[in-house]
Amino acid sequence: MAKTKEWKCVKVDWDSDGITWVTFNRPEKRNAMSPQLHYDMEQVMLELETDPDCKVIVISGAGNSWSAGMDLKEYFRETDNNPQAQFRSFTSNRHWSWEMLINSRKPSIAMVNGYCFGGAFVPLCNCDIVVTAEDAIYGLSEVNWGIIPGGIVSKVIVDTMAYRDAQFYAMTGRTFDGKQAVQMKLANIAVPKEKLREETAKLARELMEKNPIVLAYTKQAVRAVRTMDVQNSYEYLMTKIQALRFMDKAGTRETGMREFLDKKTYKPGFQSVKAT
Ligand code: ACO
After folding, report:
1. pLDDT in tens, 11-60
2. Which of 111, 117, 148, 231 is the most exposed place for a label (fewest CB within 10 A)?
C-alpha cells in the first residue's frame, strides 16, 4: 500500500509495488547530515528491514543535493566539546550508514540527484548499487577544510574506487560529475537528471523479479568475500549456498532447474524463474 511517513530530517515514501524511497530532507542545508538526520536514518533503516512492504530501498536527497556530507556545524563544531553528544551522533552515523546498510537483506540503491560530498561517500559506497544524475557533483572536500577523509570514508573509497582515483580526489579535493563517477566505478549508471527516478524504478523492479532471499544471500556473499582469502571464500560460499537451500522455502533452485531442463519454459541466462 502506498504511504508516506516523515521524520524530522527524513521522508519515506512507500510505493505500492515495493519500492521504498528514502529522502534526506534538509534541502535548505543541502541535506548535510546532522545528528538528527542520523537518528532518523537509524530508525528508518530498522523499520524498513522488517517491513514486508519494502522490497528495495532507494536513498535520495531533497532539492539539488544528495548530501553535502556531515553537517559541519551540528555534527562537528557543536559536539567538539561534548564527548557524550559526539559519541551518540558518531555511533548513530556508523550504525545506519555502515553496519545497517551493509548488513541489510534488502537491496539498496543510492539515487544521486546532486551534490555528494565527504562523509556522504560512506552511505554512497555502502549502498549496493548507485544510479546517478549525469550532472551530479561529487567531491572529497575534507582536505579543503583541514581534516582527512575519516569516519571510514578513506576505507570505503579504496574499497570501491581504484586506488589512484581515490588518492587523487582525496588529495586534490577536486570535484567530478556523475559520468566520471561511472567511469571510475563509483557509480553504476549515469542518466540525465529528468530520467533519474524512472531509470532507478526500472532497476528496482528488475531486482524485485528475483527471489528476495536469493538476492539477499547474493549481495551478502559478494560483499563478504572481498576481505577473505581464496580458501576462506570457498568455505564460506559452500556453506552459504547450503544455508540458502535451507532458507529458500520457495525452492527457487529446484523450480529453476525444472522449468529450464524439463519444461523448457525459460532461459536462466536471460531472466528469473517465476515463483511457483
Ligand atoms: N554542513 C553544514 N551546513 C552546510 C553544509 C555542511 N556540510 N553544506 C551546506 N550547508 C549549509 C550552508 O551553510 C548554508 O546554510 P545557511 O543558509 O544557513 O547559510 C546552506 O546549507 C546552503 O549552502 P550554500 O553553500 O549556500 O549552498 P550552495 O548551493 O551555494 O552550495 C555546496 C552547495 C557546494 C554543497 C556548499 O554548501 C558546500 O561546499 N558545502 C560543504 C560541502 C562539504 O565540504 N561537506 C563536508 C564534507 S567533509 C565531511 O563530510 C566529513
Report:
1. 999 999 999 999 999 999 999 999 999 999 999 999 999 999 999 999 99
2. 231
- Could you tell me the distance, in angstroms and rounded to a whole number, from the CA of residue 23 to the centre of ligand 1? 18
Class of CATH domain 10-208: alpha beta
196 within 8 A of 133, measured Cβ to Cβ: yes
Atom of ligand 1 at shortest range from CA of 65: 35
Instruction: Extract the residue ranges of the chain whose pLDDT is less than 70.
Output: 275-276
Domain boundaries, the chain: 10-208, 212-263
Radius of gyration over every alpha carbon of the chain, rounded to an integer in angstroms: 20
Alpha-carbon span 133 to 199, nearest angstrom: 10
| Ligand 1 pocket check for 77: Cβ under 6 Å | no
Give the global pTM.
Answer: 0.97
**Ligand 1 atom nearest residue 73's Cα:** 2
Angle between helices 35-49 and 83-94 (to 10 degrees): 40
Which residue lies with its CA nearest to atom 8 of ligand 1?
68
> If you take atom 29 of ligand 1, which residue's CA is the nearest one?
30
